[in-house]
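Reopening: Poly-beta-1,6-N-acetyl-D-glucosamine biosynthesis protein PgaD still failing for me.
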Amino acid sequence: MIINGRQSRGKRLLEYLTTVSGWILMLSLATQFLLSLLLWGLGITYVKRYLWVTAEPALTWHVLVVTCVVAIVAGIVMGLWGHYNRTRYGLLHRRHMPEPVSLQELSTHFGIPQETLNQLQSARWVEYDDDVTLLSNP
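Support: Ran it again with your exact input. Result attached.
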């Protein structure tokens, strides 16, 4: 499979915006999580004064737990997606075009005479039925 690098401007923009928004989401969740931990560690009075809802302490715990769970789940999903991409596409060399294949190599690989390959390359329409030896050129 050859991956063509020529994409429409709209598709590139959509991919760019999706990537940037995903990173912004991850960074905001990580920042919120780390800031919460920092505030808890450095200033319990600040946390009590501004973050802790004294009327409903369970609500504050719920918000903190949900934030931590969302950050952890998002991190796991991103990590698994990166692992999948690395194992699926990591060995591909997409920066270089594949080496050209000669008619001799094609002929040897598929077991087709070179004359048939020449006919196939010059034909405008080729029909075949699961067997390359039964090629017809209408």
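The CA atoms of residues 49 and 119 lie 83 Å apart. If you still see a failure, please send the error message rather than a screenshot.
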